[in-house]
Amino acid sequence: MDQLVIGRGTPTAALRNRNRSPGDDPYADDRFSIELRSKGLRIEREVFMLGFEWGNLAAFFTDLADSWHGWHGEKSWESVEHDLKITASSDSTGHCLMTFTVQDGPMFSWRAEVSGFRIDAGEGMAALARSVHEFIGDSPAD
């Protein structure tokens, strides 16, 4: 899968240009691009990944899908250089509410946060988790 788009219309988050090294080198030059779009905003940032982070990203989305009954508080995943953070919460009507935050590294001079992603719990999140696994080049564990 060359691209994964989360959301329809506004807002959207597009993950693309995955560059994942073969093998298990944790310090490989891995990365992907994230593009966030919302009303009046379009931002793109390259996200650096260590080898183990691909699995952590996939596990984050799998956990959201497995938590279809909801949870209290927030769950989040953040890239090693803090240039992408994905935060999720659940509402009382069976939806996962997501926010994507992009910034220019740990000592950031700018930050963009886009919220308003509303994904149906159950099959909606399960399909998204499968798409994330496909995007990163893994198959989800059964």
Range of helix content:
10-25%
Which word captures the global form?
globular
Largest sheet: 4 strands, antiparallel
Structural class comes to alpha+beta
Radius of gyration: 15 Å
Report strand order across the widest sheet: 1-2-3-4
Can you write the helix and strand succession as a string?
EEEEHEEEEH
Task: State the total count of DSSP E strands.
Answer: 8
Average pLDDT, all residues: 91
Instruction: Report the uncertain regions.
Output: none
Kindly give the count of domains. 1
Distance between the termini: 20 Å
SS summary, helix count: 2
How much of the sequence lies in strands comes to 35-45%
Describe what this molecule looks like in 3D:
This protein has one domain (3-136). The protein is 21% helix and 42% strand. Helix 1 (51-66) runs antiparallel to helix 2. The mean pLDDT is 91. The protein is an alpha+beta fold and 142 residues long. The longest helix is centred in the middle third of the chain and has 16 residues, at 51-66. The strands form 2 sheets. It has a 4-stranded antiparallel sheet.
Summary?
By secondary structure, the chain is of the alpha+beta class. It is built from two helices and eight strands, in the order ββββαββββα. α1 packs antiparallel against α2.
Topology of this structure?
Layout (H helix, E strand, L loop, with lengths): L2 E4 L5 E8 L10 E9 L2 E9 L1 H16 L8 E4 L5 E7 L4 E9 L7 E10 L2 H14 L6
